[in-house]
Amino acid sequence: MDASQSKHGWTQLSDGYLSKTPIFQFIVVSLIFPLWGCAASLNDILITQFKTVFSLNDASTAFVQSAFYGGYFLIAIPASLVIKKNTYKFAIMTGLIFYIIGCALFFPASRVATYSMFLVAIFAIAVGLSFLETSCDTYSSMLGPKKYSTIRLNISQTLVPLGDIAGILLGKYLIFGKVGNLADKMAGMHGAERVAYGERMLQMTLRPYKYILIVLVVMLIILAVTPMPRSKATNKEAEKAVEEQPKLGESIHYLLTNGRFMKGVGAQFVYAGMQTTVWSFTIRLALNLMNISDSAASSFMVWSYIAWFVGKLVANSFMGRFSSTGVLTWFSACGIITLVITFTVPNATAVYAAIATSFFFGPEWPTIYSHTLDTITEKKYTETGGALIVMSLIGGAIIPLIQGLVSDATGSMQFSFIVPAICFAVITAYFWSEHHIDAKAGALK
Length: 445
What we know:
By secondary structure, the protein is an all-alpha fold. It is about 75% helix and about 0% strand. The protein has one domain: MFS general substrate transporter like domains (Growth Hormone, Chain: A, Up-down Bundle). It is built from 21 helices and two strands. Helix 5 packs across helix 7 (about 115-140). The model has no long low-confidence stretch (mean pLDDT about 85).
């Protein structure tokens, strides 16, 4: 036992888990989760704003998500190396600093008023979020006994929808404001008048990021002064516990040859893309099928995140009595049905079905994450394993782009929802296969 840790009331075990969960530290880490939800949901507002101001097609608007999730993909491995060489706390603080820098870049971006400059700011935020997710997802699962790792991560992840709701409300009232339907307002504008009005609208994107900056600075200070566990696997064979730090190549080779781990990474790729594309295009779907303003359409995203939050609670209650993979197989199958309704019913019912789909997202992301992490039997590879799972968020950059291309090619935003429907079928197959593997191994409740 590390003496510096024992005085705080927890004992670190050789596999990196703790003898008990340090409640205050767990709360601090969990409060970081809604911060990336807020940034992600603001992207859905920015997509609608940028499409009109910069006269973009659906495929081009998807580059907002490409910049966002591309940052996750590129930085996850470097973030894991930072965790290996330092601590989870250091990596989280690094992520908060990059997040702060990205938000600050919105100020010059609104002055320059070019799409590429905004993408740079979004990418910088994504760099910070990649550090945060690579560290916080794994760290939350490690902050206590191993048998409760999935429960801890699900508790932390349950706060993400609250951040999503906050982001949409900030966008609804601070970016859209009382403008009405921006596309209709700018339709009759040309030349200098259109440019000037567009620049004025871009200035409104600054408003939510001012408040986010304040929250980030406060969280950075709290984390800096809070003692945190290391939660690193140690070599129990040694006379003195020594943290194991295998080389990156060794870690990658182990993980790439772990079939169930890689299947989980693939499932997370598809899930991230599916979730992102449904949320990215729900506002656009509402605008296409209903005669409403941008601000009113953004309300549908608030209901989507509420549905997601409730779905997490319902699924978690079922998962307390039945196997997680079995419960989420049924959730995923129901999600396929709601998405089929979304791309086939030519009226407002399709929008409500898209909202209902969020209910069936439930706790799928954290469950896939922790379930995949559990397939790593050699815990010294945990940090790199967590990074590879976070890298799978690149699906959030690729699959929305595919949906945008389908929408442009077919001329139907609604029909393009066939893309996430296919994704949900893949996720259903993943949970079904994992359920059967767990049943054979006797790992089910």
